[in-house]
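Title: Prediction job returns without error message
Component: structure pipeline
Severity: low
Priority: P3
Assignee: unassigned

Description:
Job completed but the reporter wants confirmation the result is attached to the right record. Sequence as submitted:
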Amino acid sequence: MRLHEKNKKHSVPLRDPHQDMLAGIRELAPEIKARAAEIEAARRVPPDLVERLRSIGLFRMFVPRSHGGLELDFPAGLEVIKALARLDGSVGWIAVVAGASSLFVAASPPELYQRIYQDGPDTAICGSSQPGGTAERVADGYRVRGRWPFASGCTHADWIGGFCIVTENGKPVPGPQGKPQVRVAVLPARDWEIEDTWHAAGLKGTGSHHVTLRETLVSEAHFFDLDAAPRQSGPLYQAVRQWLPLVHGAFSVGMAEGTVDDLLALAATGRQQLYAAVPMRESEIFQYDLGRISANLGAAQAFHEVQAASHWRHALARTLNDEDLVIEGARSATWLATTCVGIADACFALAGASAVYDSSPLQRRLRDLHVAAQHAHAQQRQYVDVGKLALRRSAGHAG
């Protein structure tokens, strides 16, 4: 036997961190499902469960290898988000925040980035992209004040960021295209005040409270600009806005998959609804609607997969930083949110009266998907830009 053949025969295969993460999620799945009511009641993911998610690599999945992270390919990271959303909406949303936040801070200067990850790659980061604060220029940096909504995951975050309108003498400083300049302030979580405001219709367990800074002096070293040139070298870090709608889409698809799982589990019990001639699973009405739902789910899965693959090809080719790709991503996120809400509505209706109880996962899926569809990345108004892009491309082809 040749030496290289012998070594090949007895070598230990390299571990795949992506597959390790999915295996960890499968192992954690029964506990996540069993604790859904606890997560909702606490209005946050319990600290011990956050630590379990941390241990499987959730917070490091998009962190560069240079800083100890996994630096997963973007489609692989989306699979992780989908797998967690399939189990529980609030846990899935926390996964969205974990992935998106680490991509956001990749735009920060090296000194700030090093500070954020000085204790390792498993740092939990959250923030609010609404410009809820002002940053008044002063001699030592900026005087920041504001109140930011929807800071999902702030109860377990290590660092929190908020978008600020830059001002001088109380007036907004003009930025690109004449709009006010916006910068991101990032500080350790201990420097922020969390207001207990998250009493919501869905995604109850995400801890999406308001966070506040009151006349806080923040040095230049704790600010960054999203439109700055890429600070990290890998394909993940060329741009941020192009990725965000696809992360939202992964949540929608994972939730829709979980909703169908829950409906099939109910049908498997042999449940027969009041006045129905046969059990649900034997009813042709149920079978017809389930077939239609399955087709919609398959279309959503395929659309998201194609869009993610397209964006990743652009990232590998270094052509991701393109405004048209933001619009393409918004098109997919909006359509996916609408389609997956429709799937949840149909599953809830098929389940009958039993689905109205808090104990039913189907009512929770319904609420979570409707709330997620209210997000700016999934709003129907996005179709205006999509239509404009279609017209512009059509005119280009005609020319």
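Comment from assignee: result matches the submitted record. The chain has twelve helices and eight strands.
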